Amino acid sequence: MVRRPADVLALDREHVWHPYGPMPAANGPLLVDSARGVRLRLAEPAFGQRELVDGMASWWSAVHGYRHPVLDAAAAEQLGRMSHMMFGGLTNRPAVELAARLVELTPGELRHVFLADSGSVSVEVALKMCLQYWVSVGQPERRRLLTWRGGYHGDTWHAMSVCDPEGGMHELWSGALPRQVFADAPPPGFDAPPDPGYVERLRALIAEHAGELAAVVVEPVVQGAGGMAFHSPGYLRVLREACDEHGVLLVFDEIATGFGRTGRLFAAEHADVVPDVLCLGKALTGGYLTLAATLCTPRVAEGISRGEVPVLAHGPTYMGNPLACAVALASVDLLLAGDWAGEVARIGAGLRAGLAPAAELPGVREVRVLGAIGVIQLDHPVNLPAATEAAVRAGVWLRPFRDLIYTMPPYVTEDADVARICAAAVAAARAG
Ligand code: PLP
């Protein structure tokens, strides 16, 4: 029996949690039947639309769009071999090939790869690597983390502790989470030169806490879910220098920015800085399957192996999942085989032109674009139902939050669809 869309949605409201959603749900989601290219096909028309251009690329991940023949073929081929096998005592070709490819692609000496099953877990693993490193080298007192306000690193416990502590999504837990050190968010503006006063304060804070810091953990260049803020790459160089001076490890969370989104393959490349630990996820599988990776340098791995417990004590059931790894490998190779930088620049130009009219609207604080990321920031919290409806009426899927209407479309989005996304975002800004 195939249920009618209305019945599926009734069951959804009754039983299924959605991200940051109440139970039972107040506003029903839209039911998607299928997707192809950059379009989501709804089971039933919503506000007169049956198909929506996906301005969200499934939360930064579907960079090649949906049902790409190369990725479909990679998945089918791997399904014909095995979709999963345990990673303890066994290994598989896709996991090994993917790890080797990531080592090749990422800057510097990032040589060792933990294949985690979600972005949050890859952050959890990164933090665990750093804490375990200091235990192993005989400085267990170094167990706090320094991060920027306004960050977002995931929803698991330790990852939440390095998210924005105020007004962010995890404020509820602030009293219970590990107590970290928070520096002010870097001053905004990708092109703005680093602010000397801010740099001095940042250096002083790192110096003050150096003896108890395991690592500095930040999202390079773009703070995503914490506020879609862009900052100068110069601050990353400051962090690298200060960490080196005090022996503190540096972790970059490139789960959102990795694989070209900011115009460089990895955002750290804007600053020519290499972290000790790097987290990747989202676009890693082109949005097909859940997979993330934590890469580290030999310093970190060798430190851990010198310890009393010489193993990294982490091993999720779906670690190194061959199906996800096979698709990830195909996705990364597909990206590199094409002109991803050209596509990102083309989309960026389209976003700049198409979102510009929003800057004139009352209630809009700022319009900003970096790489293939476009943001309209309002001067008030967005009216989510009204803004979403306006975008859907314009044939586009957007998911505004806080005071932000933003888009990071698939890299295969054609100019006409980029323009459509922009028109929808401007309509959402008007309505929301
Ligand atoms: N880190 C960053 C920078 C993110 O943007 C996200 C997700 O939005 C995460 C970590 C968490 O990843 P996941 O949702 O796959 O657990």
TrEMBL record:
It is found in: Cytoplasm. Substrate binds at residues 59, 152, 282, 315, 399. Pathway: Cofactor biosynthesis; biotin biosynthesis; 7,8-diaminononanoate from 8-amino-7-oxononanoate (SAM route): step 1/1. Keywords: Aminotransferase, Biotin biosynthesis, Cytoplasm, Pyridoxal phosphate, S-adenosyl-L-methionine, Transferase. The modification N6-(pyridoxal phosphate)lysine is found at residue 282. The record marks 20 as: Participates in the substrate recognition with KAPA and in a stacking interaction with the adenine ring of SAM. GO terms for biological process: biotin biosynthetic process. It comes from the Bacteria. GO terms for molecular function: adenosylmethionine-8-amino-7-oxononanoate transaminase activity; pyridoxal phosphate binding. Its EC number is 2.6.1.62. Pyridoxal 5'-phosphate binds at residues 119-120, 253, 316-317. HAMAP family: BioA (MF_00834). Catalyzes the transfer of the alpha-amino group from S-adenosyl-L-methionine (SAM) to 7-keto-8-aminopelargonic acid (KAPA) to form 7,8-diaminopelargonic acid (DAPA). It is the only aminotransferase known to utilize SAM as an amino donor. Homodimer. This is Adenosylmethionine-8-amino-7-oxononanoate aminotransferase. It comes from Streptomyces mimosae.
